[in-house]
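Now for a specimen:

…
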Amino acid sequence: MQNGLPHTDYDALAARIKAWGDALGFQAVGISDTHLDAAEAHLLQWLADGHHGAMDYMAKHGAKRARPQELVPGTLRVISVRMNYYPQQARSTPEVLADGSRAFISRYALGRDYHKVLRNRLEKLAQQIRGEVACQCRVFTDSAPVLEVELAQKAHLGWRGKHTLLLSREQGSWFFLGEIFIDLPLPVDAPQENHCGTCSACIDICPTQAITAPYLLDARRCISYLTIELKGSIPAELRAPIGNRIYGCDDCQLACPWNRFAQKTLEPDFAVRNGLDDIALVELFAWDEATFHARLAGSAIHRIGHEQWLRNVAVALGNAPTTPEVVAALQARSHHPSGLVREHVEWALQRHSSG
């Protein structure tokens, strides 16, 4: 016999798990099996085409990402959860994007690091399950090779949109995903049907044309990849389209009609910190390393480090309206010890001198 009890009522247990998840602040909880054969084929082709760019860890894990039982031996089911993150008080994204002197930061990163918040809640849920029945389970929050969108779709939490993110008819896409791998034969939910139809709004809006076909993202062109995952120089031809986006990009989500139904989060951990929803690029560029660490400790942004932060802000300043303040801010960093920073500052200053 596997873990569990001889006479465990798994239907009742699944219902309790979903109720516990709701009480812990998750907006949806679903259960899926571990079969991801079709997704695995798509993943391997995506990697073969080089769409992962410099994200070597994607290729390193390869097919393991699509095989939950290899990641955690004994896994029979995956419990997937959704948690809304769009903050209540954030300034309107279109307004920020329209003001080239301000910094745009993807709305998921304005508050506390979601990895910590979701992991804590998932661990509590796992503890409740273990307290009910003998089992082995392990939680994940974008912290291991997991095909979370595919698993969430199988668990009826939504469907993969043409921008490759998960979409929900009730909540749009402004949410995080997390998983619990478990060795119990819980009843599974029916996969969610796709409701994108003929809409191509997310493809049309992408500033760098990173969505090369429906459901296909070339990460090498994606602004989220360029400002977060890419550690080196941003390709020169992609710098101007970045605009004032210094950490991530939400354009494809903003254009999606389903986000008309999205609900803002009630989680205090995701509330805006340090005024990052509406702050001047010049002010951010003046942050020294100590200030960067002090202000962004506990934030997802902190992970990129001060050097990459300055690189990103330099590009945004190169795209900003030419003012004495912008030029002076760039000139003040023109002799920065980092060659990466100097390269992007020089590009930005050339933009203003030629304008």
Observations:
- The two ends are 73 Å apart (CA to CA).
